[in-house]
Amino acid sequence: MSAALAHEALTRSVEDYLKAIYHLSHKGQPATTSDIAQWLELTPPSVSGMVKRLSEQGLLEHVPYKGVELTPTGRRLALRMLRRHRIIETYLVGFLGYTWDNVHPEAERLEHAVSDTLIDRMAAALGNPRVDPHGDPIPSSDGSIDELIYTALPECGVGREVSIARVETSDPERLRYLGSLGLTPGTRATIAS
Amino acid sequence: MSAALAHEALTRSVEDYLKAIYHLSHKGQPATTSDIAQWLELTPPSVSGMVKRLSEQGLLEHVPYKGVELTPTGRRLALRMLRRHRIIETYLVGFLGYTWDNVHPEAERLEHAVSDTLIDRMAAALGNPRVDPHGDPIPSSDGSIDELIYTALPECGVGREVSIARVETSDPERLRYLGSLGLTPGTRATIAS
DNA sequence: TTTAATATTTTGGCTAACCTAATTTTGGGG
DNA sequence: CCCCAAAATTAGGTTAGCCAAAATATTAAA
Q1: Phi/psi at B67 (nearest 5 deg)?
Q2: How do residues B34-92 score in pLDDT, each as one tens digit?
Q3: Separation in Å: C28 C1' and B34 CA
């Protein structure tokens, strides 16, 4: 089943569901129907239906009324989408004048259209980066990902010198604000208060 | 109607129909249902149905049993797709290691996902080229296109020195063969026999 | 423990886009 | 001028993916 699937193209919707479930079930708990619905801006019945189809296809493990998790195949495909998204964002910022606050929507559409070959060539042009412009880790083509846990800023002591590693908001306005303060990944800073 | 349409996203199918009809009705005659069906590898009834919907939307002029032509709005949208396709091909060949014989399928998928902004930035990175790697003219963002008519090679006299302007095949194997002979746009050659 | 609120799923219906089979129109040869 | 083959359209059916409304399951509170 999973071998057969590897060669069938996934639809755009399916790719979005896999990404959403990856994000939501990331920290242990299974993703619930309403979590997924909210994330994807769909209604719960739509999610219920799709979840059923995807578990029949072996991409999800679904315990009715409890939630879903990705199977190994589903996880592999989700990570492939994550790699695509992050390589595309990094490429657009590096070579085509995008900024970290406006690159997301473009990547969101392109990630469904690119080939693995194109992604690998973009990655090569970038020197195979490990993180994207937000500091999020980029899965490698074999499906491994460095899930480093960084210390949140509020938990760093006053006076401490820190290096910004990752900025976990996707709100463009907030990103522009942080950017204007110079709070971008790679920057060194000292906590003033 | 056409103003309203400008802001609704077209589906991938609609974009493909517009491109097909542009290609087929290019030389005067309207495109017939079976021409379109053959070009898109669909059945004639499918095309009949879509043609009806697109003319109701003001993108086509359809005379039943006769054929279709693009309206000005339809033509503008078709040229936008053509510009996308050709800028993408040129960019992928120029910056990402694609060759003229393998770039088509990638562009065919990307053209439905890119924004106008991205296309304009790719074009700028390329120095706003007038032709793609096959020598096909690239419509400008305002919708104008240089439809130069070149002389076909067999009609050039023996001994004549010519400059290859455009290669009008999309067959990868043929393109590789021509490429191996050095018969690419921009090359100068002398007709031997 | 029983009830009420909440979450999930099921049911029924919609649209886009495709298909096959049946029907209608068109246009050329007898 | 009529008929027939080719082309086009209409009729009827499918799938993916969405929604709203109804039904059911779970969980928390009284």
Answers
A1: 145, 180
A2: 999 999 999 999 999 999 999 999 999 999 999 999 999 999 999 999 999 999 999 99
A3: 19
Q: Determine whether the distance from the CB of B43 to the nearest atom of strand C is below 7 Å.
A: yes
For residue B118, which residues of chain A lie inside 8 Å, CB to CB?
A: 92, 96, 106
Cβ distance A101 to A175 under 8 Å? yes
User: What is residue A122's DSSP assignment?
Assistant: H
Residue ranges with strand state E in chain B: 60-63, 67-70, 161-163, 188-190
Report pTM.
Answer: 0.92
> Which tokens is B35 given?
């021409």
CA angle at B8 for the pair B5 and B14, rounded to the nearest 5°: 80
Q: B128-184 pLDDT, tens per residue?
A: 999 999 999 999 999 888 877 777 777 777 888 887 878 888 888 886 887 778 778
Calpha distance A133→A103 (Å, rounded): 10
**Rounded Cα–Cα distance for residues A104 and A125 (Å):** 20
Given a contact cutoff of 8 angstroms between Cβ atoms, the answer to whether B147 and B178 are in contact is no
With a CB cutoff of 8 Å and minimum separation 6, the contacts of A55 are A61, A62, A68
CA of residue A81 relative to chain centroid, distance = 8
